[in-house]
Amino acid sequence: MKIATFNINGIKARLPRLIEWLEETQPDVACLQELKTSDETFPEADIRAAGYGAIWHGQKGFNGVAILARGTDPVERRRGLPDDPDPAHSRYLEADVNGITIASIYLPNGNPVPGPKFDYKLAWMEQLRLHAAGLFASERPVVLAGDYNVIPTDHKDDVFSPTAMAADALTKPESRAAFRRIVHQGWTDALRARHPAGQLYTFWDYQAGAWPRDAGFRIDHLLLSPLAADRLVDAGVDKDYRGREKASDHAPTWITLK
What we know:
This protein has about 260 residues and is of the alpha+beta class. The chain is built from 7 helices and 14 strands.
């Protein structure tokens, strides 16, 4: 079972790239972030024509998350976090697909630092931690997939330049500590479980020639509960899709489970 996460950066603008990726790689589940479209304008017909059922939690012009499932409809469990610091933002969607609980997550960016956006990021991460603890305690196979907007370490395998990113909310000690508090509940970082060393960038900015220079970093993560981690076969990044015409600034990131 192949489960992927893909920050599409505007589903209407990137729809040809999304359909192309679905047809070429055929993930069983695709978690999307940054739809930037309302519930009413989500392109359901195009998704279904590609062979996928879908649920989505949209927001006009900003945010937005979706879960697609090949040949079936995801069974929605929750939209939005309990006690979300700002429920007007569409950042969390959770569903059951073929016996696995899967969440699509778009964590706040948090810039500029310091400021209310950074405070909101940390507050949102704390609510995610609390909800994740309940999912972990359920002892079911769970995958928390999405754009976490956190670079876990300063290692060159996670970020092209720690110095260039030092002032960014994605690398701040508070952001990393909040991410670790989630992971240390017992979740497995799937990409690093399969690839303990080696560059695994998932994002390259549109600015400053980041893609041609390979100046990227890793912010898209799939965290697995023990029952899901026990079934982990492989994980990777579909890096080539970042280089296609009118691509998202993220690359699809995926796992395969037995």
